[in-house]
Every structure is written in structure tokens, then in C-alpha cells.
Specification:
By secondary structure, the protein is an alpha+beta fold. The protein contains three helices and four strands, in the order αααββββ. A four-stranded antiparallel sheet has the order 1-2-3-4, with helices on one face.
Length: 155
Amino acid sequence: MKWTRLFIVALLLCLFATWRAANILDTAFLVSLPVVVVLISYLTPANNWVKALTGTSMLLAYLACSQIGVSSYHDAYNECIQKGEVVRKQLSEFYQINQQYPEQLSQTQSPQLCKPIFHGSILNYHKTANGYWLSFDDGFVEHRASESTEFIAHK
């Protein structure tokens, strides 16, 4: 029973690491590292040697899951850079047909772009009174566009 509980906690922590990791230097990630090791070591129903081995194994698994999350986020970010103008074109076509911009980006019939694992799209869309704005960022650089301007990077 205790090993099952340990396995479930380890799995949940890995899922958290994959979900939370957009940046390997994220404060929540760095603070959670020692908590993960101590929690797993405490929950291990064995002697100190097995606890240390289990804690080290979990630390490595947590780092691997975090790397998967970071990689997924960067893939989504790069997809936004490569295909952001395609979305602007689809919004323009929608406007030509309907004489207004959509309330939500999903109304353009475009596939959902810029989506990391366990998250919605990092491409943000907001309809304004006379147009729209789009944006996405990686925590350091934000890219913004509107109906009249292409994507421009801002720090």
C-alpha cells in the first residue's frame, strides 16, 4: 500500500513538473525541487539507503519531466513564431467574409496552434472595438500583432 501511494505521488509530481515547466528557472520549479526529494524520501517505506536511492531517482525523473515540459513549451513558442502570420491571414479572411473579427480564435476554423503539453494555446487573441490583437511570449520576449501590424517582439 505504501509503495502504491509513493508511486502515485511520484506520478503526480512528474505531471506537475511537465505542466508547470515553461522555464527551467521558474521559481515554482526551483522551490519544488527540494520538496520533491524530501517528500519522496519520507514516503518511501524502507531503510535510509533505499530512501536515498528513491529520492535521487525521483529527482532525476522530476528533472526529466520538467525538461519535457520546457521542450514542449519552446516547441509551441517556435510554432507561434513560424505560423503567427498564418493566423493573421485567417483572421483577415474571416473579416472579409463576415465584416467583423471573430469573438474567439477558434471561429476561424484554423487548427489550434502553439499548444504545449497539458496547456491551452500560448497564442492569446483578443477582439477589440475595431480589430484585434494577438500575443505570445516565452517569459522574456513578448510578440504582439494586430489587424494592422505584423508580429513585433517586445522585451
